[in-house]
Write a structure and sequence with these properties.
The protein contains no helices and seven strands. The chain has 102 residues and is an all-beta fold. A four-stranded antiparallel sheet has the order 4-5-1-7, with no helix packed on it. A hairpin with a 2-residue loop joins strand 4 and strand 5. The protein is elongated, with a radius of gyration of 15 Å. It starts with a strand and ends with a strand. The relative contact order is 0.42.
Length: 102
Amino acid sequence: MTYLHLSAEVRNKNDYPYQNLYLFIKNNLKDSSTWKIDTLRFLLIDKKGNWLGNGWGSLYQLDKPFDSLFVPHPGTFQIKISHGMKDVSLKGINDIGVRVER
């Protein structure tokens, strides 16, 4: 049995046209046949128009914890990420990922 902490990470450029980003993260970590879905809202710009997160040049990175869970047994598991924005392709989003830590 393993206890895991999950967080989503987003790396964006300053030409991203929106203030926020919605992500849908599906995983089957508790039971390989059952999927859990989390919806995350990343606020990328504050009310004053400043980019949030750690940044260098025109690139910024934010992370957001979203789950902690026990994985009851070893196995082959999956994590799937999709966005919930109206555009199919998101200009200004460099990377999206999930960090899994014990």
